[in-house]
Amino acid sequence: MNMKVRVGAFCLLFLWGSSATAAIQSVSKSTDADQVAVEVTVYNSNLGLVKDRRKVRLPAGEGELRFMDVAAHIIPETVHAKSLNYPEDFTVLEQNYEYDLMNAGKLLDKYVGKTIKIMDWNKFQDRKDTVEATLLSNNQGQIYRINDEIYLGHPGYKVLPELPENLIAKPTLTWLYHNKSEQRHELEVSYLTNNLGWKADYVVVLNEDDTSADISGWVTLDNKSGATYKDARLKLVAGDVHREGSGYGYPEEGSQEEDDGGGQGSSV
């Protein structure tokens, strides 16, 4: 699965889009190791709201930031990013959501037009034979050029020299940005994601005289969003979620908040 969703920053995309790509001078990366706080609001309708705060130092000017370790089931059009400490100095010009599931086909796609090795076991001479081949196509089968001849497929294992640099194996938000500050930004990135849910179960135990009872409750969280939220502040919200327009806006306030569990220190 290769998902790419491009979302412009209002009309700035039209003003900056063409020049931003040409003027990129640096690529920065941010992982969950940069996190200073994360808040997760889970609705019982298979939906979650994530607020991810990270400290990131960016070069001044225009550049590219790869914001990694986000949910695989993120709804990209709901992403909102801002600098909490220097809000006037950081602007997102263009956004892509990129996620390449690592498999043999995807890896070979990245090596079309390049030289790879093919290793095959020669059972007659009991040895491994290795040939170098240029991969011409990986569309419904491989086509190779070997010694000025064209091969439609070839037996053996394909050996790649390394993982391609442009392979994005983790869910990643890629931004073209404009930055005026040389200080470290505290970025807050919020987004909605599918495949987050919860349910509550209650147990009532009566005493021997059936005159009183003890009630205990358990909350079960179901996180299939494709990300781990370590030490997250957690809120659970019950009730129907109303989303305007296309259905991808943020949930409106007013749903019944069930529990925040003390909130801090939980991992989802």
Mean pLDDT: 83
How big a fraction of the residues is strand?
over 45%
Counting DSSP E segments of at least 2 residues, the number of strands comes to 18
Shape estimate = flat
Put simply, the count of helices is 2
Gyration radius (Cα, Å) is 25 Å
Distance between the termini: 24 Å
Features:
single chain, 268 residues, mainly beta, 6-stranded mixed sheet, 5-stranded mixed sheet, 18 strands
Q: Overview of this structure, please?
A:
The protein has two domains: 1-100 and 167-268, no CATH class; 104-159, no CATH class. With 268 residues, the chain is mainly β. The protein contains two helices and 18 strands. Strands 6-14-4-3-17-18 form a six-stranded mixed sheet, with no helix packed on it. It has a five-stranded mixed sheet with strand order 1-7-13-5-2, covered by helices on one side. The longest helix has 12 residues, at 12-23. A hairpin with a 4-residue loop joins strand 8 (115-122) and strand 9.
What secondary-structure arrangement, pairings included, does this model have?
Blueprint lengths: L1 E7 L3 H12 L3 E4 L4 E9 L3 E10 L4 E8 L11 E4 L6 E11 L3 H6 L5 E8 L4 E11 L5 E4 L2 E4 L4 E3 L12 E8 L5 E10 L1 E11 L6 E11 L9 E6 L17 E4 L9
Parallel strand pairs: 2-5, 3-17
Antiparallel strand pairs: 1-7, 3-4, 4-14, 5-13, 6-14, 7-13, 8-9, 8-12, 9-10, 10-11, 15-16, 17-18
